[in-house]
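Per your request, structure below.
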């Protein structure tokens, strides 16, 4: 029965409104813009991009050739909330921004919420009421992601340009990497971490952008565009690699501490990619492959704690004792150490779920492609509450800070939902 829960036994220059610099920044109101000269011949990045694009479009082309144009089955009717609908409420909603792209994650810093949109507008919103406290414009339509704290705002462009700004939008430094970037940077206490599509991880100095260290993964050609988010815990950077491997890097020096495979790789294909960010489950680090296994390894030495055959297209979440995964069939499962399933919730099939997020008081949050934020009980998988943000998917999983969930939709809506 639907809804049942089953107990188990492109290159774009970054420019900011401000004074002209040698890096190509343009003053506010200027009618001119610099255009980088394209080198003769075909660049390596464009060659790789073309190969990946072709590989991506091949299945779609095959479907068209053989006439497979069946309509997608409708989603299941969502389960009715079994709890008090007042468990959550919309605290505020801001619709003044432009559209977002998948991967645009809001960032909390102090009393502010930072967001960026596809037009390159960076906004600082009040966490209390959602009103805009400041904004500036980065003239680029190829932003890969944003990171910010009280002292520094970092934007990464898909062409590999990394821009360090003050919170009021003044340029501090700019660095051009030799590869494209498709994931948001990470602001650690001691460095800015950036990952390229070619498997390189770089640590840049917060003060001036100079390179502290870099580490290059031995990636294969067709895996270059896969780039799951990194995770920082203490002085360690955890990186999920293509061919279903996890690597722990020393944050100070960029030296690998261990390198572990979580699934058998039969070749360099998209099928072994890590889905979503690795997550912590107690003292273990867990990850899931797209068509492979979910596995947890010891953070101390990378030794395998447990694994089981289970795939995901969305990702998972973890805390000190539980692991929640949206499997490849969009069935939500709660796992315990060892990989045993405690419950399953199959009432959200074909709704395009985000990765789940664990919130305080044993609640589970996730978004769907229809713009809904749903809340489940971690005890048994029952639906506690649901609220509609707008009618488009979330750009990233909800961001939970204290008792509030912050979301940004692809249509540009930014909202704060109070979790009671």
């Amino acid at each position: 029965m639907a809804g049942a829960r089953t107990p188990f036994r492109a290159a774009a220059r970054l420019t900011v409104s401000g004074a002209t610099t040698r890096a190509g920044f343009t003053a506010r109101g200027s009618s001119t813009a610099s255009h980088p000269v394209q080198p003769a011949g075909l660049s390596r990045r464009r060659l790789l991009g073309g190969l990946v694009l072709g590989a991506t479009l091949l299945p779609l082309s095959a479907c068209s050739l053989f006439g497979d144009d069946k309509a997608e089955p409708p989603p299941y009717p969502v389960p009715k909330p079994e709890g008090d609908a007042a468990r959550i409420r919309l605290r505020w909603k801001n619709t003044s921004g432009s559209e977002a792209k998948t991967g645009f994650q809001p960032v909390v810093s102090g009393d502010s919420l930072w967001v960026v949109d596809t037009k390159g507008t960076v906004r600082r919103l009040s966490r209390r009421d959602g009103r805009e406290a400041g904004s500036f414009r980065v003239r680029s339509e190829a932003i890969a992601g944003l990171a910010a704290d009280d002292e520094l705002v970092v934007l990464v462009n898909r062409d590999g340009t990394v821009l360090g700004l003050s919170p009021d939008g003044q340029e501090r430094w700019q660095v051009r990497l030799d590869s494209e970037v498709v994931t948001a940077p990470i602001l650690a206490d001691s460095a800015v971490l950036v990952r390229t599509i070619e498997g390189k991880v770089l640590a840049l100095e917060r003060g001036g952008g100079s390179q502290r260290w870099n580490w290059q993964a031995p990636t294969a050609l067709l895996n270059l565009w896969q780039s799951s988010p990194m995770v920082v815990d203490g002085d360690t950077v955890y990186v999920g690699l293509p061919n279903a491997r996890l690597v722990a890097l020393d944050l100070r020096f960029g030296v690998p501490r261990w390198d572990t495979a979580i699934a058998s790789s039969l070749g360099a294909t998209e099928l072994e990619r890590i889905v979503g960010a690795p997550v912590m489950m107690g003292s273990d680090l867990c990850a899931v492959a797209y068509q492979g296994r979910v596995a947890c390894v010891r953070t101390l030495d990378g030794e395998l704690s447990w694994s089981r055959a289970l795939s995901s297209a969305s990702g998972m979440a973890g805390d000190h004792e539980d692991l929640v995964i949206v499997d490849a069939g969009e069935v939500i499962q709660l796992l315990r150490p060892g990989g045993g399933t405690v419950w399953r919730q199959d009432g959200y099939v074909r709704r395009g779920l985000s990765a789940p997020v664990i919130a305080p008081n044993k609640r589970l949050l996730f978004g769907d492609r229809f713009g809904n934020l749903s809340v489940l009980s971690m005890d048994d998988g029952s639906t506690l509450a649901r609220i509609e943000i707008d009618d488009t998917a979330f750009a990233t999983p909800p961001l939970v800070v204290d008792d509030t969930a912050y979301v940004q939709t692809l249509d540009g809506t930014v909202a704060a939902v109070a979790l009671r």
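DSSP finds one helix and 33 strands in the chain.

Regards,
D.
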